[in-house]
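User: Hi! I have a protein structure encoded as tokens and I'd like to know what sequence might fold into it. I'm fairly new to this, so please keep things simple.
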């Protein structure tokens, strides 16, 4: 590993690496497929396999990693948050689960920067094998909704870096299909995140972009208004009630709890112990969850970590938009639990940054 004393990651020269051998790509696709099918089994097995594989692969590329001062700051913030979780309240299994969830996005980002497009060749085929077999329409009082919105959203993020620059027709086609799937899920926050991602792909200096974009958005908006009624609904699905209740608990807590949090897994413990909360299942706000479970100290490290990641990839508007789209989903959903989605978006943002750096 080479230590680079220059102040930002952007200053590190781009590295041209030989593509991975076919056998490694086959093994990688196999591991990704297994990890996807393990999602249904619950527990941490799927995430451990996913995170472990990419960390091992990343370790094998150690000689290509440049560590700048900015990266050291980001890593220090991540280590600090991990230490806060590890030393806080909560049982060991919940601490490990939260730490693993927190690691997904930054590890994916580093993997995308260091390894590049070979990551797409491992992730996309696995998703294309898994999603058609596991996706179904669920009947709800708000109409049919396609499941797996965040896996489709992760696939869309990967396709957005396949279509950046020269791109491929296949990547564009897969991206369109995955985008339609996100719309059919009628998951409002996923659709908004996809729009933020798309913003990073647009060439805003061209008048054609604004004209075509206006027409496309108008047409799609009209279709969605008629065919996908849930997207236009403004209700909060009861989230505000639960957020206020947890906010009251945090405000009434002791000073040590406010600074260090209630401990990993505290949100689920409270929800499972109160009949009025049990139907909700989760807090549906990861930013608030981190504050509640790790306190002001952990919440501050969390926000600074986000700022550090976005600052480090600022050379690429697409990378920034992908990271912002993930942060947006965490406002009203339990995105920290979606390990594959976080890994896909981290890898996509890393590849986008790598390409922007190579283009100069």
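Assistant: Happy to help. Inverse folding works backwards from shape to sequence: for each of the 360 positions I chose a residue that suits the local structure. Here it is:
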């Amino acid at each position: 590993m080479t230590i680079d004393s220059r102040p930002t990651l952007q200053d590190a020269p781009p590295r041209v690496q030989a593509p991975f051998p076919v056998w490694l790509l086959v093994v990688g696709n196999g591991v990704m497929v297994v990890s996807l099918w393990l999602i249904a089994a619950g527990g941490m097995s799927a995430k451990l396999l996913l995170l472990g594989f990419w960390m091992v692969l990343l370790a094998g590329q150690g000689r290509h990693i440049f560590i700048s001062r900015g990266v050291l700051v980001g890593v220090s913030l991540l280590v600090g948050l991990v230490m806060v979780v590890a030393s806080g309240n909560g049982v060991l299994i919940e601490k490990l689960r939260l730490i693993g969830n927190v690691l997904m996005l930054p590890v994916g980002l580093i993997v995308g920067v260091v390894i590049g497009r070979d990551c797409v060749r491992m992730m996309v085929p696995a998703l294309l094998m898994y999603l058609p077999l596991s996706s179904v329409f669920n009947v709800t009082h708000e109409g049919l909704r396609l499941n797996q919105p965040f896996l489709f959203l992760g696939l869309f993020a990967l396709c957005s870096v396949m279509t950046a620059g020269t791109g491929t027709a296949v990547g564009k086609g897969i991206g369109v299909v995955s985008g339609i799937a996100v719309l059919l899920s009628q998951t409002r926050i996923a659709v908004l995140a996809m729009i933020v991602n798309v913003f990073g792909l647009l060439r805003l200096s061209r008048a054609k972009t604004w004209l075509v974009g206006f027409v496309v958005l108008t047409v799609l908006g009209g279709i969605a208004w008629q065919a996908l009624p849930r997207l236009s609904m403004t209700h909060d699905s009861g989230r505000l009630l639960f957020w206020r209740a947890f906010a009251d608990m945090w405000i009434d807590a002791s000073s040590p709890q406010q600074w260090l949090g209630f401990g990993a897994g505290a949100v689920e413990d409270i929800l499972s112990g109160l009949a009025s909360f049990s139907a909700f299942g989760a807090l549906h706000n990861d930013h608030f969850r981190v504050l509640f479970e790790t306190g002001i100290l952990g919440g501050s490290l969390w926000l600074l970590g986000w700022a550090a990641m976005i600052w480090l990839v600022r050379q690429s508007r697409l990378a920034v938009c992908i990271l912002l789209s993930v942060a947006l989903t965490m406002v009203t959903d339990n995105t920290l639990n979606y390990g594959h989605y976080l890994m896909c978006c981290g890898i996509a943002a890393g590849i986008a940054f790598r390409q922007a750096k190579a283009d100069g």
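A useful reference point when you look it over: The chain has one domain: 2-359. Feel free to ask if any position seems puzzling.
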